[in-house]
Amino acid sequence: MKQRIISAIIFGAIFLPVVVIGGVPVVVLAYLLASIALYELLNMRKLSVFSAPGIISLLLLWIFLLPNQFESVLNLIHFTKIEFALLAVLLFLTYTVATKNKFTFDDVAFSILATLYVGIGFYYFIETRDAGLIYVVYSLLIIWATDSGAYFIGRAIGKRKLWPEISPNKTVEGSIGGVICALAVAVLFLLFTNIDASYIQLILITVVLSVFGQIGDLVESALKRHYNVKDSGNIMPGHGGILDRFDSLLFVWPLIHFIYLL
Question: Which residue in 27, 22, 23, 113 sits closest to 65, CA to CA?
């Protein structure tokens, strides 16, 4: 527990000031976190980030992370992000032939999906911060409230397993408790901030984000169970890797935009 607290304080001391500052520092932070997260995913699959497919994945990730204000760079070469993704697919498939199928079609699919999963999530981290600090704070509070509520309420009264094949410690009671705690925080947030949403809007949005935040957590748990790893990495002692810390937010940040909170 002591190690977890120390790691959380150190990470928070780096992450939170950068988020408050915004602008280019947030973009740099997003690139760093996303690159580490992609490395963790490829490592689960036993794919090296320093191999040809790893470098292609990393370059595609960096292109996907380009925020709106910098997309004019792509216009200079008349390529869109989608076209770069299609080019990456062709390069991946070519590599399957070059390696005589040692790099398989399954590896191609994993590399593309891993890049999109991480890239889309952290791209919307940049866009959320660009829309306003208040939305990043809201997303962090909702996920922290959901995680804390699910953990403590699950330990106190949890009996029915939520999805034991994927995450044996999570319970239905804990999951519902997490949503309730997120709602309580959202109501307080609306009372003490000027976020542009009505009570009904924020309640509905909070329920969706809290539920999908938990799904994001379960997705990463499913990945780790499939590849038989305990944590996605060890960059944060006591907490695991970057994916372990941002799995819920990788679902929440895009959804904030998709459901028109912004």
Answer: 27
